Amino acid sequence: MGTELLHLLQLTSPALPVGAFSYSEGLEVLVQHQHLSGPEPLNAWLQDELRAGLVAIEAAALAPLMDALRAGDAAVLHELDGWLLAQREAPELRAQQRQMGRALQQLLADLGWPLPPPLAASGTLLSWPAAFAWASVCLAIGSPQLQQAYLYSWVANQISAAVRLVPLGATEGQRLQGQLAPLLVERGCQLAQADPRTLWSAGVGAGLAQLQHAELYSRLFRS
Q1: Does a cis peptide bond (omega within 30 degrees of 0) precede residue 167?
Q2: Is the terminal CB of the chain with fewer CB neighbours within 10 Å at N or C?
Q3: CA of 17: how far to CAs of 94, 105, 163, in Å?
Q4: Domain map of the chain by residue range?
Q5: What are the helix (H) ranges across 112-180?
Q6: Which of 121, 126, 122 is nearest to 106 (CA)?
């Protein structure tokens, strides 16, 4: 495996300067409305999202995004990137995807991995899944580790938000992360072989929660 594992750890590290810590993706609304009041309902929520939420569609899109990036195919890249953004109902979530994607894209450029000339010349700005795919191209990370890492990173950020919101103790958060590991492996392998266009999201509750975030009286997070 060589340095692939270390690169994978770098990509999923909370020290990655993309601002993921500032977003809850609707979790703040669910906690304030007392839908998620402890580790058990949080565990069920995360499992449902991993099985039939938008994060699964994004993970399935990573492989075709990588293909488009390697080929420098701006048309395919922009179409798929825009399609993924359109799945996000809340403006805050679309802003999150753009902000995190641009931060990672700029970081990679600063580290010596700018976009290929055909894409750079067109002024391509990547959203988060596309930027994650580009990072995986740069760091030589393949499937299904790529998809598993994407899902792991999402779960880790959700649990980090829950530790501050539920409240959920740090130990309980780590226990939950460990309990979800088999599902992350399973879904990563499945999604590495899936066509994102054939998948659908059942995350209606997540979408509604995200749309209500702007209406909260007080907020800790940006989404």
Answers
A1: yes
A2: N
A3: 19, 11, 20
A4: 4-11+22-215
A5: 117-121, 128-138, 145-165, 170-179
A6: 126
The answer for residues whose C-beta is within 8 angstroms of residue 1's C-beta and 6 or more apart is none
Neighbour count for residue 87 (Cβ, 10 Å):
17
Give the model's pLDDT for residue 1: 52
- At the topology level, CATH places domain 4-11+22-215 in Urease accessory protein UreF (1.10.4190)
Cα separation, 38 vs 36, whole angstroms: 6
Q: Rounded CA gap, 217 and 208, in Å?
A: 17
- Angle between helix axes 39-52 and 181-192 (nearest 10 degrees) is 10
pLDDT score for 37:
86
Token digits of residue 76:
């395919």
